[in-house]
Structures are given as structure tokens and as C-alpha cells.
Amino acid sequence: MNEWLNSFIWAEPLWAILILLIPPLIWAKRKVANPKTSLLFPTLTLIFSSHEQRSKRWIWLPSLLRLFSLLLVIAALCRPQLDRSTKTILSSGVDIVLAVDLSASMLALDMSESESTPVTRLDVVKDVLKKFIKQRKHDRIGIVAFSVDPYLVSALTLDKEHLNRNIDRLRVGLTHQTGTNLGSALAEGINRLRPLESKSKILILLTDGKDEPAPPHSPLVYANGANTDGIKIYTIAIGSNARTLTYLFDSSTRNIMRGSNGRPIVRYANYPVDKDILSKIAVTTGSQFFEAKDKTALQSIYDKIDRLEKTEIEMGVNAFFEELYIWPLGAAIFLLCLEFILHRTLYLRIP
Strand 80-83 to strand 321-323: parallel, antiparallel, or no bridges (unpaired)? Predict the structure, then answer.
């Protein structure tokens, strides 16, 4: 239904001005009518007995049918249409890979808006990413999850529903490890963007930790490669960077650890984030580093990136409009015929 409404248009809406003529026409008709016109009968008994109740009840119906028919004729003149045009994106100006940390620290609860409704860092990130994807209507977007090893969640695609379904799949334990390797995430994202011929290639790396265990290569090695390939890397550090409540990760079930009562176990933990290396990665690629300690700050960061990275697209349009005027015109003719029949049968006036 919503799709139908979104594609409905009036091709010539100026004809709707004719509606303004209807009130004067009604007034003029009443002025011209002569209520004193009468016909002499030797007796009115038969007329009253057969028509009194019927004439008083629904006496306004023919006039109402005529009014509706006029409105429908005007609607037909306005040429209602359904826009059946198809649009094909020939090229998009921006290709984006979203790299999301799935280490155990993403179970921290410091980004919860209230103590009564605790949410993990990952829950907040997933919600913000969905809004960001919705804003980038014409961009191809891919998703890479990482802990120690990277995991391709979704190849670059224009299918936003597909992306949202894959964001829902994100959870700590999806990549089988709980550590962090920034270099592996950069390598996977860069490899997805490097062969593309788009005007702008963006990698947005989001993490709340630092490399653990220490990697064989510094993430800056990959940042230099990205710069050579014309790929910008925005980096985002999330979390309070202080001692915080967190759910615990159960490596045997690859899920949140729960007590005997079935409730998640909560403990205090400290998860340091390597802001220095994240800043250097961004600077190396001519991009920016951001920090977000709550959902509002994180949302504003993605909004800023959205404004910085404008999309330029080329579209092919196949214009086609389905005419709908026949429906109100047909309904108007039907109502006029019905009004004509009623005027000469049930509502016949003499004279």
C-alpha cells in the first residue's frame, strides 16, 4: 500500500481549481429553482399516501450523486497516474566498507542509556550502523567483522535489506576468537576496495581495544598501502576507556556467560583502547580519527562522515506512467446515470 501511495501522482493538478466553482453552481441552482410551482389535483390523498415518506427520506440523494460525479470528473481531468518508471544506478561515487570489532570487550555495558536497560557496545553500534546505511541510499557498502581474524559478513552491495540482515547477525564469538588484530581488519577491508573503480573508497574502522596479541606487522603498514591505493580510513574508538561493567564471554558456547539461574554474569573490567595508533592510521590516509563514549556521540560521528563523503551517482531512467483517469471518469458516468434514473423514477417531480 505504501509503495502504491509513493508512486501515485497528479499529472495536471491545476484542474482542481474547478472545485471552487461547485459552491457558486449550487447556490445559483437554488436561486433559479421555483418552489412555488404547483400542479392542481382534485385530491392530494393518493400523492401523499404513496410518496410522503419516500420523498422526505433520501430526497438529497440525487443531488449528492451529481456532486460526487462532478468531483470525479475534475479528478479525471487532473490525470491521476502511477509512476512505474525504473531507475538503474549506472555508477556510484562512493564505495564503503564498515569494519566492526567483535572482540569480547564489545560486551561492555558503559554505553547503556540507563542501568535498568543495559545494552552492550555492540548493540549500540549495530543500531547506529543501520541508520548510517539507510542514509547512504546509492552507495555500495560491505561489512567486515574482526577480532584476531577478519570475517567477511557481506560483500559490497546496494541491497540495504541484505546489509541490515547481516548486521543483525553480528555478535561476539562470530569470528571464533575474542582478541583484536587491527591489521587483519584493515587488510580485509582494503582488499575489498582496491579493485573497484569508484571515485571514492572509504573504510570505516570501529574498535574499542588494541592489538592483542601483538601482530607481526604494524597496522600502519596497511594504512600506507591504503593511502597508495587512494583509500581513506576513518577510525573510531568507542567506549569510556575506564573500568566498566561488562558481560563475560563463554568461549565454550561462543556466547554470553550465564549463571545457574540463566542470567548473564556481569563483572567489572578495564578495556584500554589504542587511540594513538588509530589516529596515525587516519592521518596516514588523509582522513580523521574520532572518539565516542556514548550512542549520541557515535551517531554524530557517522553523521559527520556521511556529510564529508558526498555521493555522486549516474542513473539510467526508463520513464513510464500508468494512466488512472479512466477510473474516476467511469465512476462519474456511473453516478450520473444512476442520478438520471432516480430522478425519473423514485424521485420524479411533477413538474
Answer: antiparallel
